[in-house]
Design goal:
Two copies of one chain form a homodimer. Chain A is of the alpha+beta class. Chain A folds into two domains: 8-57 and 136-249, 60s Ribosomal Protein L30, Chain: A, CATH 3.30.1330; 59-133, Alpha-Beta Complex (CofE-like fold). Chain A is built from six helices and twelve strands. In chain A, the strands form four sheets. Chain A has a five-stranded mixed beta sheet with strand order 1-12-2-8-9. In chain A, helix 3 (69-78) crosses helix 4. Chain A starts with 5 loop residues before the first strand and ends in a 24-residue tail after the last strand. The relative contact order of chain A is 0.20.
Chain lengths: 257, 257
């Protein structure tokens, strides 16, 4: 495989606020038109998780959440809203690490992340109600549906990535990662390919969709939804299709659980 | 701060093989000219660690390395060349995790990484000698020197990132990270900025230079040196300058050591 020599990312202009039930593919197509951008099948569209969650109705009114005893306990340790902690526990398989202000869990999807990916910023209503936004039920399926819908609307089948921002052990700051992926290899396996001198490459699997999510994150801006959809042109190979679930390291291969 | 709306990355064409003592800035300027690209002060140039290490003479002839008893012991556990393990130990503060084929250490720079960043692929000579390539002595200083030299040669002061590929806990595949940074904020601190609804952002520090290194990695291709230098246009703000050392999480704030 030859890597491409140019990669261009463009934020779709004036993407509107998204509400439950919105047709995100149609919104993206309109935004592409506003930007004078014609979608191509070798493009990748990166969608911020927040707009997917909003369109899929994953907003929860905190007034409806009754914390369990376990959530109340844990909320004291991490010093977070017990209703939020209750939602985190419902969305998680297990708690990985806790300390003041930090609640790292294994999400039911297998993602190890802070707060089960639940976000409170940018989720409000005009009446000042308090809401939390859960991750999509199944972001890989969301990506497939978006790709299908884009094909219907445009005749093109771009790659689709759903991105979130994750903190990391050992390093400061969040980076974009792929929690959903369609029409696109989430990882590139270079095992067995020789290097320039013919020696087999040893470090060999690349977190391809994560790198693309990180690139898109530079344009999205952290926390804001002003630019939730990024067109990426020049990524190269479309095959084989592989979901973002392939980016989750199997527990038995993980030394840091 | 407004994030940019377009980010374009271009691999500098036909970058030559690099040898000890080479003037990388001059090689980059020639490659930019070949590509018809005029450097601007608001650009960022991302250099693969390997070409920095080669130019700085960090290639070690394995025939000159005598493994210590500790290296011989550890080499049996991880099933690697004892001479390579000896170099890893010399470059490290401590061993973090080991198992067959895996040797994760805290590098003397504070980076937690496999094999202290020492690479054996793409490092050979015509006579078939075996060599290993260490990380640069001080990649942040390397980045500053490159930037200074680029200014002398072109009158422009671009940002400079030195990138490497790191594996990660919990996730499959390597991604590009910044181990050196100059003229450029390695992290973006958004603390205190309101979200779209005026609620203060909570997840607030972005691994900015890491995201740019990941974006560049899509074009570099893993393991190859065919495209070791990537021009990044559209990154936005240049201030404040902050080294890549700022991306290393202080041990007392790290729950996964």
């Amino acid at each position: 495989m030859r890597s491409p020599v140019e990669l261009c990312l463009t934020a779709l202009p004036d993407f509107p606020q998204v509400a439950s039930g919105d047709d995100l593919a149609a919104l993206a197509v309109s935004a592409l038109a506003r930007g004078g951008l014609a979608l191509r099948s070798d493009d990748v569209l990166v969608f911020a998780q927040k707009v997917i969650s909003k369109a899929e109705g994953r907003r929860i009114d905190l007034a409806t959440v009754v914390p369990s005893a376990a959530a109340l306990d844990l909320a004291r340790t991490v010093q977070k809203d017990p209703r939020l902690v209750e939602l985190v526990l419902r969305e998680s398989r297990r708690v990985v690490r806790t300390t003041k202000d930090v609640l790292i869990v294994e999400h039911r999807l297998g993602l190890i992340m802070a707060n089960a990916g639940i976000d409170q910023s940018n989720v409000a209503d005009a009446a000042g109600g308090e809401f939390a936004l859960l991750l999509p039920e199944d972001p890989d399926s969301s990506a497939v549906r978006l790709r299908d819908r884009l094909r219907v609307l445009t005749g093109c089948e771009p790659g689709v990535v759903i991105s979130d921002s994750f903190g990391r052990p050992w390093r400061v700051g969040t980076v974009g990662v792929a929690i959903g992926c369609a029409g696109f290899p989430a990882t590139l396996d270079l095992r067995g390919q020789p290097d320039l001198f013919g020696r087999p490459l040893r470090v060999t699997v690349v977190g391809h969709a994560d790198e693309i999510a990180s690139a898109a994150s530079v344009l999205m801006g952290q926390g804001g939804e002003a630019r939730p959809v990024i067109l990426v042109r020049g990524v190269g190979s479309r095959a084989p299709h592989q979901p973002a679930a392939a980016l989750i390291r199997p527990p038995q291969q993980d030394l840091f659980r």
